[in-house]
């Protein structure tokens, strides 16, 4: 690696986890990696052929996030060439935008030697995203249950979720978060809010107690967002019923969708995966694990 060069590796994430709307996220072993070297101008180079349409200059989201941090602390950003590689599908609910936000913040932290704390970085990311569930796991690793309000962040972090696999079922179409948010109601009836909150509370407790049977059952009872968003996912009911029949603990809409994820006993999807692909061939199937390490930096 060249002088003043560094690499940042960020795990993707799944968020919401049923009733954990805007508050529960899990880091997964899908990664965004950027290679940063000093340059005479800002330039972003996408390694994947399928992403050549993305911006190459200062209109890139990585730069915009990094500049937000620089402006916040009163610095100018010296130019870098940034090579970008990503395993995270775009607009599929697997944390692609959140990972870019995290990488951009860490890039500014490294370039400007800000020495930001983990919480400082997670606060900035939550400010940029408006919610913490898809960015805090990419910073901290593992599962994060978080509440962001009035420029403060309250969170708990759970690591070593080694008893389960996360089976992602990825459709060929994209679903932009903006559209998925617009379909949600502006308000909920009081009692529905109480019931939804109770379901979410028990789900959070089940995660920390590693009671995945209970978690799976309750995440499908979500009252906050899945009943509204499933209208945008034609295969939602089919996949949920199929994976329940196959023995999954539970299935939920990953992030804003359209990817759906089933939580299963560790090792079992490797045995059944080929059958699932044959039964539902229109979906891309990925067996994922929880990534306990968050964003990492490798310097020259």
Describe this structure in words.
Keywords: Amino-acid biosynthesis, ATP-binding, Cytoplasm, Kinase, Nucleotide-binding, Threonine biosynthesis, Transferase. Residues 61-142 form the GHMP kinase N-terminal domain. Belongs to the GHMP kinase family. Homoserine kinase subfamily. Residues 205-267 form the GHMP kinase C-terminal domain. There is one protein chain. The protein is of the alpha+beta class and 300 residues long. It has 2 domains: 6-159 and 291-299, 2-Layer Sandwich (Ribosomal Protein S5, domain 2); 164-288, GHMP kinase, C-terminal domain (Alpha-Beta Plaits, 2-Layer Sandwich). The chain contains 10 helices and 11 strands. The strands form 2 sheets. Strands 1, 2, 3, 4, 5, 6 and 11 form a 7-stranded mixed beta sheet that branches. The chain has a 4-stranded antiparallel beta sheet with strand order 8-9-7-10. Strand 8 (250-253) and strand 9 (260-265) form a beta hairpin. Helix 1 (61-72) crosses helix 2. It is globular, with a radius of gyration of 19 Å. The termini are close together.
In terms of quaternary structure, what is this? Answer: single chain
Low-confidence stretches at least 5 residues in length (pLDDT < 50)?
Answer: none
Q: How many β strands by DSSP?
A: 11
CATH topology of the largest domain: Ribosomal Protein S5, domain 2
Rg from alpha-carbon coordinates: 19 Å
Structural class: alpha+beta
Q: Report the total helices.
A: 10
Largest sheet: 7 strands, mixed
Strand content: 25-35%
How far from one another are the termini?
5 Å
Mean pLDDT: 94
Can you write the helix and strand succession as a string? EEEHEHHHEEEHHHHHEEHEE
How many separate domains?
2
CATH architecture of the largest domain: 2-Layer Sandwich
CATH class of the largest domain: Alpha Beta
Overall geometry comes to globular
């Amino acid at each position: 690696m060249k002088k003043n060069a560094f690499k940042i590796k960020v795990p993707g994430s799944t968020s919401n986890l049923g009733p954990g709307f805007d508050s529960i996220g899990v880091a997964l072993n899908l990664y965004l990696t950027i290679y940063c070297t000093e340059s005479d101008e800002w330039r972003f180079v996408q390694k994947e052929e399928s992403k050549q349409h993305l911006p190459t200059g200062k209109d890139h989201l990585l730069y915009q996030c990094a500049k937000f941090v620089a402006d916040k602390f009163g610095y100018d950003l010296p130019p870098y060439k940034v090579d970008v590689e990503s395993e995270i599908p775009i607009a599929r609910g697997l944390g692609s935008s959140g990972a870019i936000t995290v990488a951009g913040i860490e890039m500014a932290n490294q370039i400007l030697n800000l020495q930001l704390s983990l919480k400082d970085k997670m606060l900035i990311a939550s400010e940029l995203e408006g919610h913490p569930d898809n960015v805090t796991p990419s910073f901290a690793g593992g599962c994060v249950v978080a509440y962001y309000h009035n420029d403060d962040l309250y969170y708990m972090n759970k690591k070593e979720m080694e008893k389960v696999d996360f089976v992602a079922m990825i459709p060929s179409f994209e679903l932009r978060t903006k559209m998925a948010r617009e379909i949600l109601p502006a308000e909920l009836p009081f009692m529905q809010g109480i019931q939804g909150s109770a379901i979410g509370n028990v789900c959070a407790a089940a995660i920390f107690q590693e009671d995945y049977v209970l978690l799976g059952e309750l995440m499908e009872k979500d009252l906050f967002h899945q009943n509204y968003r499933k209208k945008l996912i034609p295969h939602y009911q089919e996949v949920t019923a199929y994976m329940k029949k196959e023995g999954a603990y539970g299935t939920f809409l990953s992030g804003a969708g359209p990817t759906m994820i089933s939580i299963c006993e560790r090792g079992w999807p490797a045995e059944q995966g080929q059958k699932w692909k044959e039964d539902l061939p229109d979906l891309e199937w990925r067996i994922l694990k929880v990534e306990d390490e968050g964003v990492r930096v490798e310097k020259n």
